[in-house]
Design brief:
Rhopdopsin 7-helix transmembrane proteins; 9 helices; globular; three-stranded mixed beta sheet
Length: 275
Amino acid sequence: MAYEVINQISVTTFILVGFSEYPKLQIPLFLLFLTNYSVTVMGNLGILVVVRINPTFHTPMYFFLSHLSFLDICYSSVFTPKLLQILVMEDRTISFKGCMTQLFFICTFVITGMFMLAVMAYDRFVAVCNPLLYTVVMPHKFCALLVAVTYMLGRLCAVILIYTLLPLSYYEYGIINHFGCEYSAVISVSCSDSSFRQMTCLTISIFSESSSVLITLASYVFIVVTIIKMPSKGGLRKAFSNCTSHLTAITIFHGIILLFYRVPNSKSSVSMPVL
């Protein structure tokens, strides 16, 4: 029985629906996503280069920011090339291994990004609430350890999610009603019971999202209390300027996550095989 499942998985090919329902928009969408991808990669590469060559940016805040930029490049590079391909080519297929690989890296970079934002919130907490001890509390080795932990957690969660998908049986040439291998969309082309997998995904999503949000909220509660107690308006402006960019990143990142990475009913995607 186990051999049959493994053999079935090895020959499975999926079809990504993408934006095929809008044939007249294929080229405009291709140009739009290509432009967005180019701007994203060039912008984040610019941040990495500036942080690298400018000694004034060799601080914990910019160290974490450079890793967030790196994650953004990686995530875009995993998702966008396949999206661009299915927009301009008739071949919309993706192999099972290719789909699992894409999903693994997507989960890794997204979850790592969540925890990286939480680490950056803690960094802002130390910088605002304990500025005189900032260099003592946030030495380079400790910052490197925090970054390593975020990558480890992201990879661990991704491994768990991929491992839950491997034993499933799938429709050969199943239609994935998505432009990428999103977790719930992959589950929708399985002919096995997926309730445990959906619960696993929900648990990991709640754990990663709530952990990041709670750490961030706790950090900013202390930051706000500290700012309120500041007598100097100059200190107020400096404190707010230190946190504005991070708050913007948090709002955009978690807004996108809540919109696209919630766990919908698997029946919402097309799951019937192509005959």
